[in-house]
Amino acid sequence: MADDGLLVNFEIPQGTLATKSVLRGGPWSERRRIRQQENYHTKKRLRDTNTHIDSELLEYVGTGTNHESKRRKTSPASEAKVHAKPFGGPKPYHITASPREPRTGAVDKPIISSLFSSNPESKTTFDDKPIDPNAEPVEPSNAPLSKELLNFTTLGLTPAIAAHLTSKLAISAPTSIQRAAIPTLLNSDEDAFIQAETGSGKTLAYLLPIVQRIMALSRPKSDAEDGIARNSGLFAIILAPTRELSKQISVVLESLLRRAHWIVAGAVLGGESKKSEKARIRKGFNILVATPGRLADHLEHTEALDTSSVRWLVLDEGDRLVELGFEDDIKKIISKLDFRLHKSQGKVLESLPKKRVTILCSATMRTDVERLGTISLKDAAHIAADPTHTDPSSESNPNGTQVEKKFSVPSQLKQSYVIVPAKLRLVTLIASLKRAFIRCKTTTKVIVFVSCADSVDFHFQALTRNESNDSTIQADATKEAEKEKDKWRSKNDFKAKARASQQPNVELGTSANSPSLSTDSQQVSVFRLHGSLQQSLRTSTLQAFSKSSNPSLLLCTDIASRGLDLPDVDRIIEYDPAFSREEHLHRVGRTARAGNEGAATIFLQPGCEEGYVDVLKAERGDLGAVNLRGMTAEAVLRAGFPTVTQNAGRPRKNVEELQPWEVLATDFQLAVERWALAEPGVLEAARRAFQSHIRAYATHVKDERQWFDMKQLHLGHLAKAFALRDRPGSVNVPGLRVSAGKVKADRKQAGGGAKSAKKSDNDGQGGEDADIAEARRKMSRMGRSTGGASEFNLA
Ligand SMILES: Nc1ncnc2c1ncn2[C@@H]1O[C@H](COP(=O)(O)OP(=O)(O)OP(=O)(O)O)[C@@H](O)[C@H]1O
């Protein structure tokens, strides 16, 4: 029926695993002979059931070596449980090995447990109502408006710029936020706070008025003649939190300036040589895009950087700027700009604002943005996409402007949540990716968000592993298990720890093909991205993902959640839920941009995490009935691991060859587990990922810990999702890949929400510390000591 690797769906005849009789009396050699005979017959009976049981499992459930059976106090039958209540489907029986408490002095043995047993039940009731195919499609909320009704010239842009937008950028009508922002920024010198949902075109909303007003400063009389030059002064500074986002803004700006080649824009982003940046600054820029740290540095040390004529300071992704700890840099920048403007006594430049205008941009609104507003804005206008859309929770910010607390996802986004027991997470992820790539006819791009860099690396390896080695690995499984035992024996060896910490990572590229997701007719490429990669790699990886003509998957941390405008992304999978609701909104906002369609799926575990479904429902309001669906893991697995008859693309096979989805999923899981066991580098990556994942889990913002509660995590089950057969308590990977300073910044970055939650805590002690302490407690229970990996590899 099945090959060697399968361990589910076989029936165990009564008495197969009967308890052994206890032998007393007689010579010891006779007792030993009888026990050996009994072992032999037990093995034979199991073989005679006409089923194939995974050999590793067989050994584990009690027919292993004499050494093992001698060592055990409990009988084999008491360790093997026969579960008559499987996960969904017909009622096959599963044999699972129940985890045992570690014995002092004994070598821990790997645990192989069935995927489909002992899983917690979901309390969520799923709406089985099929989607009405004739239902009216939902109007996109971030799409351009009808060009018959409105175009850019009616908003006050010059015909030349409007024509350039149409011919070079294929943009002919403004979006709602552009309709609201462009006239205000063209005609007034007030500070502004631009708030609109993801993918609504906020970048052009502030760039277009700035470019037009600089172009109007001194137009060239003819095409042959230039107006202002690059050394005429720096008029606008745009700050963005990440280098990726700054680069992206630079690209959009450059494309606009093709219409005004005499205006020169540049970028100082860090990660490049300061010397070459200084040389470019000396030549002069009219518009500068920068990351705050690098700009503050240049303002301090580069004399040639003259900011006396700066008339715009744009803070893009304001909340992220604060979250990443740039508040002090921004204060420094603002005070330097104020001082130099004061010294120049505000040179009058016709068409430019009389004073410096600060524009703060964000898709979400929270305390961080309000604080940044207090630092940077004065009497700011609040520009929202739809001014009629006010929320009862709106309140005044410290500048007296009305701010909208409510923020939602683009209306056309199709959202779903899957309730997945911890053990099934990996196979369900694979199933949902297989489904996404097989279903699509054209190039599709999927982004999978996970909580930490180590988890990105492990899943990248798992998805790109060479499956053709699986059979060799299976044949060598016993040998590898022995090797593994040796490694476990030496795990307390200091030298081994030191060696491991010196080479914590296998050499990994940032892109590769995925045999697990590819089919005969289409290759799927996988990319990985996180903050621990070198900047040049990050840039090239993003470019390669954007330009890839294959169906592609980007595995990443929240480093890719903000502002990035990657083309053709059709699906977001939040494999690990975001640390805060705002972050979740930014993540799902990488799809369904500018009126395009998109889908987003979040993985939640049964138990307290299911409470998050209400947050999703509240987020969608009335549209939830159409655009929010709940699914069981079983439904996703059935779709992703289809039996032969379900798989319409392949020729129909004999009935005997049909394999249920549970078997295919188990097959996949066992293959990944064996692969991890067989390769020491991979095993370490899996353990590291598991460890970092748990630590990262503790950084959910305080308000959301009712749904993401460390105490309710089942570590043993979770370990299976990282292909580990280890007892959680024995996972203790020493060594950190990032420096302490970087980790501090990373924690700030990824746990920013937690940080703000802590601030809002009245007693200031707050849940963050308590939860991190809980993570530590859990980890120390897991590993007795945290073994140097005392921080999160989050970035
Ligand atoms: N008027 C328009 N018509 C069509 N497409 C547009 C228009 N304005 C912007 N876009 C496109 O919409 C996409 C999203 O724009 P942008 O990155 O500025 O969104 P955003 O609001 O800043 O999103 P986020 O909050 O995620 O950063 C870009 O690909 C951009 O080219």
Automatic annotation (TrEMBL):
Domain Helicase C-terminal as annotated: residue spans? 432-649
GO MF, one example:
hydrolase activity
**Keywords from the named record:** ATP-binding, Helicase, Hydrolase, Nucleotide-binding, Nucleus, Ribosome biogenesis, RNA-binding, rRNA processing
Here the segments flagged for biased composition (Basic and acidic residues) are 477-496
Enzyme class, top EC level, equals hydrolase
According to the record, the residues making up region (Disordered) are 63-104, 116-141, 385-406, 469-517, 740-795
Give the InterPro entries listed for this entry: DEAD/DEAH_box_helicase_dom, Helicase_ATP-bd, Helicase_C-like, P-loop_NTPase, SPB4-like_CTE
Q: Which Pfam families match?
A: CTE_SPB4 (PF13959), DEAD (PF00270), Helicase_C (PF00271)
According to its UniProt entry, the protein's GO biological process terms are:
rRNA processing
Against PROSITE patterns, the record matches this protein to: HELICASE_ATP_BIND_1, HELICASE_CTER
Catalytically driven reaction(s): ATP + H2O = ADP + phosphate + H(+)
Q: What positions does the domain Helicase ATP-binding occupy? A: 183-383
**Gene3D superfamilies referenced in this protein's UniProt entry, alphabetically:** P-loop containing nucleotide triphosphate hydrolases
- Biased segments, Polar residues type: 390-402, 500-517
Q: Where in the cell is it found?
A: Nucleus, Nucleolus
Q: Name one GO cellular component term.
A: nucleolus
Q: What is its EC number?
A: 3.6.4.13
Domain description: The Q motif is unique to and characteristic of the DEAD box family of RNA helicases and controls ATP binding and hydrolysis.
Q: Which family does it belong to?
A: Belongs to the DEAD box helicase family.
Function statement: RNA helicase.
- Check the record and name the PANTHER family matching this protein: RNA HELICASE
- What's the name of the protein? ATP-dependent RNA helicase
Q: Which organism is it from?
A: Microthyrium microscopicum
Taxonomy, top ranks, is: Eukaryota, Fungi, Dikarya, Ascomycota, Pezizomycotina
